[in-house]
Amino acid sequence: MAGELVKHMEYYFDTEVALDAETLEREAAGEKITLSPENCKIITMQFQLLDSSGMPASPLMIMKEWETPGGEEGMIRRFMQENFSSNPWEFIPVGCNVLFDLGLLRGRAEEYGIEMGVWELYHQRPFIDIKHILLGMNGFAFRESGLDKFCGKRNGREIPVWYQLAQKGDAEAYRWIEEYVEEEAAEFVALYSRLKSELPKLRSAMGLFNGAGARKGTKN
Asked: How far apart are CA 37 and CA 105, in angstroms?
């Protein structure tokens, strides 16, 4: 209906990955590794509906490659069927460096013949990425601007190692991954909620715009 307001539904969204054996060995040897759809796979996809304040409005959903029929492919197909509807506003991904997660999702989906249009994914589907907010809060210096520098989140470098241990029979390692995912989600959501509350106050305090949208002190 013309003029009808579109309901926006924000979801915390993140993925965890495992490296292929060769890449994992190179990283263990001290080589700097760049993640790509060619050298890693998605092992978890986690998402959670958020309310208007940025706090959880539903339980955290964790899709696990090792528990999903069809493995990674089955997990990706299920995620897209359940969340990527024709209305892009029904699932707005919220995260830190979320373009990496979306790009990785697209790359891994292509491995299984699942097409995701580049233009649609990056320009027609809304997303919220706090990566550049954190960068700005760090004086626009890239070093020390990661999410783990702004909250209690641990670095996730051990995830591929834990996954390899789990694949070799250490079931306890799967629990480590799940605990990390839950902790990271809680830390991110708490930070995001604070940003939603405090950043509008900063805008007002700095007098950046007046109610009409023009810069304060300027003439129309």
From this structure: 8
pLDDT digits (tens, 9 = 90+) for 185-200: 999 999 999 999 999 9
For residue 34 the two structure tokens come to 């760049």
Q: Is 11 helix (H, G, I), strand (E, B) or coil?
A: strand
Cβ pair 175, 162 in contact under 8 A: no
Q: pLDDT at residue 3 above 60?
A: no
- Give Cα 1 to chain centroid, integer Å: 32
218 to 25, 210, 212: CA distances (angstroms): 59, 10, 11
> H or E stretch including 44?
strand 40-49
Tally DSSP H helices, then E strands, for the chain.
7, 5
d(C-alpha 217, C-alpha 220), whole Å: 10
Separation CA 4–CA 51 (nearest Å): 20
Contact residues for 150 (Cβ-Cβ < 8 A; gap 6+): 134, 137, 191
Note every long-range contact of 176-183, with CB atoms under 8 Å and residues 24 or more positions apart, other chains counting. 177/16, 177/43, 177/44, 178/62, 178/64, 180/16, 180/154, 180/156, 181/14, 181/16, 181/44, 181/46, 181/60, 181/62, 182/60, 182/62, 183/152, 183/153, 183/154
Band of pLDDT at residue 145, cut at 50, 70 and 90 = very high
**Complete domains list, the chain, with CATH:** 10-206 (3.30.420.10)
